[in-house]
Design goal:
Elements lengths: L2 E6 L7 E7 L2 E9 L5 E8 L2 E5 L3 E4 L3 H13 L3 H8 L3 H8 L6 E2 H11 L3 H7 L2 E4 L3 E3 L34 H5 L10 H13 E3 L5 E6 L5 H16 L6 E2 L4 E6 L1 H11 L20 H15 E8 L2 E12 L2 H13 L5 E4 L4 E6 L1 H10 L5 H13 L3 H4 L4 E3 L2 E3 L13 E6 L2 E2 L1
Antiparallel strand pairs: 1-20, 2-3, 3-4, 4-21, 5-9, 5-20, 6-7, 6-8, 10-11, 11-13, 12-13, 14-15, 15-17, 16-17, 18-19
């Protein structure tokens, strides 16, 4: 049928708008109300994609929309009910959706607040770190790329920018000298990734100069042979002797120079890793270093999986990691937040866990951090093959001046104010 335009000159709350599944296909179910408030018609569509064009919104940096609303509510001495009535906005929409920043503030609401308070627009925008944006939103079917969280811009709070490493006091054993072992004198992304691998599947003995790194022989051989082995050659001039046992694949090294470098220069604690934490050497204001560390850690001890959701098999992505060190989980969670993610951080009696959910988070992780492990890359490629149209259908974000803009696609009263709604390739059933 092509494009079916539906012009809505009133709030979406006047329509019941749900998703319906028939034979694992998502349909749109519209219940139109006539002038008397009675059900006048029911139409069901099977959309290929949606296009939603809405009026201006005000885009705040995270936390500032909440602050703006609370400040002016206090200034007017309004209750939430009085405030919503004055603005002609639904009470729940104002006190929950706008207040808790689950969607951006419409410009007309922002303008009303300024008119009541007699404030100057540009001054308020500057004070609350906000800007006005025309909206144009491309949305796939609800199951494709549903967004419930706004991804933040990158904001690294570490102050240290020094990447130099002092190796002058490191002792080399006779075997180290024969093998011509070298040590890095600068913290590079390659070294940061190797440190991440250490924190994942590595072990540094506290009784002898022994270091080992071992993975799963079922699906990590290629990673060790094609990536880790050349990396150790480049960083330390080690020619790794990879070995396989019935439950592991990897290597063991005996090197005084490497042991002292990891403990004295990098600051890694030897022995069991229950209380291990990220050394200060690695806490630098450098995006590439932090991303490389996360990549090495998640490649060795993390996972990427796709869960069946919305009736689609192995569809919804989760990037996760579980570790015995709760300190390390907290610190990794903080770094991920600095990089603009919204990680879920959980703890039980034995472990800590980080989970990153959603398609946009997956895309951001792929572009910013990515994977070196062929195992994880293959899973991502397989997922893309299962849903080849996904990249064209799940874009629900827009960048402007480092702000990432997003609207929750539940299609309720939050998406109001004279919107133009199109269904592309819709088929009426």
């Amino acid at each position: 049928m092509g494009v079916i335009p539906i012009i809505l000159n009133r709030d979406f709350s006047s329509l019941a708008f749900n998703n319906l599944r028939v034979n694992n296909k998502v349909l749109l179910f519209f219940i139109g109300l006539n002038e008397n408030g009675l059900i006048g018609s029911t139409k069901i569509y099977k959309p290929e994609s949606f296009k939603l064009l809405m009026n201006k919104r005000v885009i705040f940096l995270k936390g500032y929309q909440n602050e703006f609303l609370k400040d002016f509510k206090k200034k007017f001495n309004f209750s939430w009910s009085e405030f919503s009535e004055k603005l002609n906005v639904n009470l729940s929409t104002l006190s929950k959706s706008y207040m808790f920043e689950s969607c951006n503030l419409p410009y007309v609401v922002f303008k009303k607040i300024l008119q009541i308070s007699d404030e100057i627009e540009n001054e308020i925008l500057k004070k609350y770190n906000a800007e006005i944006m025309e909206e144009e939103l491309i949305i796939g079917r609800k199951c494709f790329g549903e967004q419930k969280k706004i991804l933040d811009p990158i904001k690294i709070t570490f102050r240290n920018k020094n990447l130099k490493l002092n190796t002058s006091k490191i002792n080399y054993s006779r075997q180290d000298k024969i093998k011509k072992i070298k040590l890095p004198t600068e913290l590079t992304p390659e070294l940061a990734e190797e440190i991440g691998m250490h924190f994942g599947d590595g072990f540094l003995s506290n009784k002898r100069y022994d270091y080992r790194l071992k993975g799963n022989p079922k699906d990590e051989k290629e990673y060790y042979q094609n990536y880790i082995k050349p990396l150790f050659k480049k960083l330390y001039n080690f020619d790794l002797n990879l070995k396989e046992s019935y439950k592991s694949f990897g290597f063991e090294l005996y090197s005084q120079a490497l042991w002292e470098f990891k403990t004295k220069v990098i600051g890694i604690i030897s022995g069991r890793k229950e209380k291990i934490s990220i050394p200060s050497t690695l806490k630098v204001n450098n995006q590439k270093i932090l991303c490389a560390f996360i990549r090495g850690l998640f490649d060795t001890d993390g996972s990427i999986c796709f869960k069946t959701k919305y009736g689609y098999k192995k569809y919804y992505p989760e990037i996760g990691i579980s570790l015995t060190s709760k300190n390390l989980i907290k610190e990794v969670g903080e770094i991920l937040k600095m990089l603009g993610f919204n990680p879920g951080v959980y703890f039980n009696d034995k472990y800590g866990r980080i989970s990153i959910y959603g398609i946009n988070a997956l895309k951001k992780y792929e572009n910013l951090i990515n994977w070196s492990s062929q195992k994880n890359l293959k899973r991502l490629i397989d997922w893309k093959k299962r849903y080849p149209k996904l990249n064209n259908m799940a874009i629900v974000v827009k960048w402007q001046n480092t702000r990432l803009w997003s609207v929750r696609p539940e299609f309720d009263s939050r998406l109001s104010l004279s919107s133009n709604f199109e269904i592309n390739n819709g088929v009426r059933t």
